[in-house]
Design brief:
Elements lengths: L13 H21 L7 E10 L4 E4 L6 E4 L7 H7 L7 E6 L13 E5 L4 H5 L10 E5 L5 E9 L3 E5 L9 E11 L11
């Protein structure tokens, strides 16, 4: 073999190499502790979402932190805005208005259907449709579009296609575990 020379790592060099790796990891961790969250930062956090009365909607405080890139669509923009400027170790608790969370109720998302279109669902003996039932429709692309039966009259069924949390204030809590700069590529390896 020409142009290639194999070298052998001597056992005495291992403590030095190990120490160097530990120092490098510590430097990376210390840098990550000091970074403020900005758009496109890689963020690891624990969070919870609750209604204004404290009823928990979702939480991962009892599980490992969630990791995502700010702005990748994993989190609604209103929640992301609350994270900007925070650093590893920071905690936040903020009551978000509906417009900043899941949006206001849009009256245009309430649709009236002739009751005849629901005849089979209303007469289903196992699971009859009633006010509060979730019904699913197919949109033009063939995707499921869930709605909630809002009212039933003698002639019409009103279905609400708003997000179930639309119009509600949301209590957002987060504990930032790590921040990696926006210009650093990350790879997750699961063992």
């Amino acid at each position: 073999m020409t142009g290639f020379q194999a070298s052998r790592l001597e056992p005495d060099a291992l403590p030095c190499l190990e120490s160097s790796l530990i120092e490098t990891r510590l430097q990376v961790l210390l840098m990550a502790m000091d970074l403020a969250i900005e758009n496109n930062s890689h963020v690891s956090l624990n969070f919870s979402l609750a209604l204004a009365n404290g009823d928990i909607i979702d939480s991962n405080f009892d599980r490992p932190p969630a990791s995502f890139r700010l702005g990748d669509g994993s989190m609604l923009e209103g929640f992301e805005q609350e994270l900007l400027g925070l650093r590893a170790g920071d905690e936040i608790e903020s009551l978000l208005p509906a417009a900043q969370a899941f949006g206001e109720v849009n009256p245009g998302n309430l649709h009236r259907f002739p009751i005849a279109k629901f005849k089979n669902l209303l007469e289903d003996e196992l699971i009859p449709a009633a006010v509060g039932s979730v019904v699913s429709f197919k949109d033009a692309g063939g995707f499921d579009l869930p709605g909630v039966v809002a009212s039933i009259s003698a002639t019409t069924v009103v279905v609400d296609f708003n997000h179930p949390l639309a119009g509600k204030q949301i209590l957002f809590k987060a504990s930032i575990k790590a921040v990696i700069a926006a210009d650093v590529e990350t790879v997750e390896i699961k063992l």
